[in-house]
Model the fold of this input.
Amino acid sequence: MPKDRAPEAMAHGIPPTYVPARNTIFLSYALALAEVLPARDIFIGINFLDASGYPDCREEFVNAFEQAARLGTRLRDLRIHAPLVRMTKAEIIRAGTSLGVDYALTHSCYDPINDRACGRCDACLLRKKGFAEARVHDPTRYSLR
Done:
């Protein structure tokens, strides 16, 4: 688990926290449910600007999956929405705050220690940076180590 990496280091390559095909799997389940319901809109909360280089968090991936879903199902007018994809963490935090999100109930940590976020993994560092840039209090409970 990478810890204490500089933002420049986070911007290069795909980190070991990448889970192969994770968003493909999530979207596939959502697609199957959408076809059964039927529904015409699927929403996914991916973000590319601060996503540590995960290839399945790119807008191009969402567009390609949407096209494949239209070709492979009866849902010719299906839309996959990724409203956070181009937002910075600060913008996401401000948007969530305006919607009443209780960030004390969330964490982004890849390596939590008991009930606390580690404070040192890429996700924690990006979260801290986002709260600081948004000028919003970060209620996350971080470990002291």
Q: What stands out?
A: The mean pLDDT is 92. The chain has two domains: 1-87, 88-145.
